[in-house]
Specification:
By secondary structure, the protein is of the alpha/beta class. It is 42% helix and 19% strand. It contains seven helices and seven strands; from the N terminus they run ααααβββαβαβββα. The N and C termini lie far apart (51 Å). The model is unreliable at 35-41 (pLDDT under 50).
Length: 183
Amino acid sequence: MIFFKKNIIYLVLLVLLAFFAFVPGVRTYVQQHFLPVAAVQDAVMVNEADYDIKLKGINTTSTNMKNFRGKKLVFLNFWGTWCKPCREEWPTIQKLYDSKKGEMDFVLIAMMDKEEDVRKFLQENNYTVPVYIAESPINGKILPKVFPTTFVLDKNGRILMKETSTKDWNTESVHQFIDKLSQ
């Protein structure tokens, strides 16, 4: 009994650590609600040189990627009409765009694609998310190695999320993540 009285704090801490380590979902919950996003994603920044990409608008006006820096969150997606996983996630991207276009900018860059194929794909599916073709090299931290690759960037260029596979972008957790960041 004396052992328990002397070591009660250590035992409580040990039980709490075991709880966080072994109960599914607790670690994720704690990270999402109590740790800053930068700590979770190692605060990787996209610098100004990485933002300098001339973008030819397919269903929107042409611009430069650097025009999106400093304003709001940016949903940056690299995809291609030739990429089956890219085409599979498009309906969820469109739904996310429909509900969050006022809170964040959407920049979808078609890679290794012909302009007419991109236009045809968008028209056949009634997609309205802004799509571009890069007219200058993409360098640095955002050059995709696989498709689709998606980044959610804060207004200063910090990578808040990176996804290198197909994802359902219209889930409650994605909406909550964006809502939390756009406050």
